[in-house]
Amino acid sequence: MNAPLDETAFRALLTDGGRALLAELSDHDPAQELALATRLRRTYAPELVSAALAQARLRQRAAAKFGADAARMFFTPNGVEQATRTSVAAYRAREFKGLGVRSLADLCCGIGGDAIALARESISVLAVDRDPLTCEVARANAEALGLADLIEVREADVTDVDTSAYDAVFVDPARRGGRGRIFDPEAYSPPLSWAIEAARKAPHAALKIAPGVPHEAVPEDVYAEWISDSGDVKEAVLWFGTRPGTFGATLLPAGASLRSPRRAMLPDPEPRPVGRFLYEPDGAVIRAHLVAEVAQAVGGGLIDPMIAYVTADELHSTPYATSYEITDRLPFNIKKLKALLREREVGILTVKKRGSAVEPEELRKKMKLQGRNSATVFLTRVAGAPTMLVGHPAPTP
Questions:
Q1: CA geometry: angle at 153 spanning 207 and 97, to 5°?
Q2: Helices 46-66 and 16-24, interaxial angle, to 10°?
Q3: Per the omega criterion (within 30 degrees of 0), is the bond before 253 cis?
Q4: pTM of whole model > 0.85?
C-alpha cells in the first residue's frame, strides 16, 4: 500500500476507472483504510487501489495548502511538501499581473501550484521541470482545474530553457535533498547564483528562496520580501525589476506590506524597561529586519537587545505585530508562576517564548491549571535576565 508512485501507477489514476476510484475515496477515513482496501480490491486491481489510496492521503494532506482545489488535484509526496500554498501563490500572481506581466516562464514548476495561480490571473505560463512524473502531475492539475489552455508543461532542464520570449521569470529552486533541507543557497538545484543570473535576463522576475537566507546573500538591487500567512513565515522572494534596494514584509491574508529602502532602515531600537504593553512582531517582520520600524510606529523599545519583543506604555494599532497588555513581571520561577495563575483562576494558558530553553508544553503541564480565566505568559529575557511576563491580548485601540 505504500509503494512509491511511478508514472505507470499515476497514469492509471487518470483512466475512467482510476477517476471513479478516487471519487469513491473522496471522504475516506485513513483509520479504516485496511478494511477499505480489502473491499476495493474485489472490484479494482490491487495496484490501482494502492495508488488511489496513496493519492487520497496526499489530497487530504494537501487540503491545508490548496483548500477545495486539493480534492480535484494530483500530488506526489515531495510535491505536497514543497508546493507553494494557494494564498501565497495567489498573492504573488496578483503582483506579477500588477506589473503588466502577460506571459511567464515558471522554472522548477513542481506540481504546478504557482502556475495555477498565475493562470487564474490570465497569465500564460510555460511550466518547466526536469522530472517526468512531476511534469505529468502538473499537466494533470492544469487540466483538472480547467487551465490547460494557459499552462504549457515542458519536461526539460531549466538551465536549457530560453526565456527571452516571456515578460517574466519565476524560479523556485529545489531546497531539499536526500538528507533533508538545504541551507547553502549554492547547493540549491539549480544554484542560487544561476537563478539570479536567469532572473536578471527578464524584464521582471521573482526568485523564491528560504526565509532564513542571510541578508548578506541578498543582491543590493533587488526587492527582498518575506511573506507570512496567518502568522507563519512561509518564504522569501527576491524580486527583480521592481522596488530595487528594498526590504519588505508581507502579511497574509490581510496583504499588509511593510517596506523600507535597504540603506534607510532604522538601527535597532534601544532597550527600555517593560511597559504596560508588549508587541510581538510578525515573523516576516523579524526576518526582514524591520522590527525597528514597528518599534518607532508604536513609540516603543526592545525588552532586551537580543530579543524581538517591543514594549511601550501606550497601545497603538499595527498590522505588523500582535499586542498584549502585561499585568505581571516575574523573574523565572515556576513555583511563583504556578501560584500566580492559581490566584488568578487561570485555566487556559498560552505559552510563548523567545530566548528561553523551556518547552511550552512542559511548562503548561507543570502549572496544573484550573479556573475560568485565560492568560498568556512570555518566557524570555529582560535586560539579560530570564523573565516571565504575564498578560493577555490587548483590546483593539
A1: 50
A2: 60
A3: yes
A4: yes
